[in-house]
Design brief:
The protein is of the alpha+beta class and 243 residues long. Among the domains are: 85 residues, no CATH class; 83 residues, no CATH class. Helices cover 15% and strands 46% of the residues. Strands 2, 3, 5, 6, 7, 8, 9, 10, 11, 14, 15, 16, 17 and 18 form a 14-stranded mixed beta sheet that branches. It is globular.
Length: 243
């Protein structure tokens, strides 16, 4: 009888121990996601008007390579009116193929003394989030927005940058046309500014988010800002057709 009681107590003790271990592993897993670093950014998105996209089963994280081909980096399931997706660190051997575009302000560094940067060689690529149906067809692109300090909804872009870079300064003119070599197309292109643009960019190696609010000053001048924002910002997500 004594041995039977000891065996029963042993199994009860082991059962409780197993539950504790499972609970601890679950908590540890959640902390790893919630406290993710720039090496593995975990993004949770709630999509406005999500009911209109009931045929979406997953969302792909896409980057376009130097040949114009879309490359899938990761994907997340569509559920609860949105998606959750892990934005992975991109291995260095892929930089030449995927993270190949120079940041525009670094391209024009030689032309304007009003812009400064500590890394003229930084390369980046903007990410796209595409909803796909069960056949794998891309049927909707989802884009983030945020509310700026003036209550206006502004565009937010996620991009991968291959090295830390700080860019600051401004461009101010009624019309400025700057020529630069577009590595994506292989041709000379131009960028046109018609108003004042302010750069306040501090990108870290890995995934970054930035916004581009535009407003009118008291003098009537239109001012556009390029700002780095925390990747943990509270964003609203929309399908492109809803914007």
């Amino acid at each position: 009888m004594k041995n039977k009681i000891n065996i029963t107590l042993f199994y009860k003790t082991m059962t409780i121990y197993c539950f504790i271990v499972i609970a601890l592993l679950t908590v540890a897993g959640c902390e790893k996601i919630e406290n993710s670093t720039e090496k593995d950014l975990y993004l949770i998105a709630k999509v406005e008007n999500a009911i209109e996209y009931s045929s979406v089963v997953a969302v792909k994280l896409m980057i376009r390579d130097k040949n114009g081909n879309d490359v899938e980096l990761a994907r997340g399931d569509w559920k609860d009116n949105g998606f959750a997706i892990s934005l992975p660190k991109i291995n260095r051997y892929n930089y030449g193929e995927l993270i190949h575009m120079p940041l525009l302000p670094t391209v024009i560094y030689d032309n304007l003394v009003t812009i400064t940067t500590n890394n003229r060689n930084a390369r980046n690529r903007i990410a796209e989030f595409w909803g796909v149906d069960k056949e794998g067809n891309m049927i909707a692109e989802f884009l983030p927005r945020k509310i700026d300090e003036d209550g206006n909804m502004v565009r937010v872009r996620f991009r991968y940058v291959d090295s830390d870079v700080i860019i600051s300064g401004y461009i101010e003119a009624e019309t400025i046309v700057l020529d630069y070599f577009d590595e994506e197309t292989g041709f000379m292109s131009n960028w046109i500014w018609e108003n004042k643009t302010i750069f306040l960019i501090d990108y870290k190696e890995g995934w970054n988010a930035s916004s581009h609010p535009s407003f009118q000053s008291s003098s009537g001048e239109t001012i556009r800002k390029h700002l780095t924002i925390p990747t943990s910002s509270n964003l609203k997500w929309y399908a492109r057709d809803d914007l």
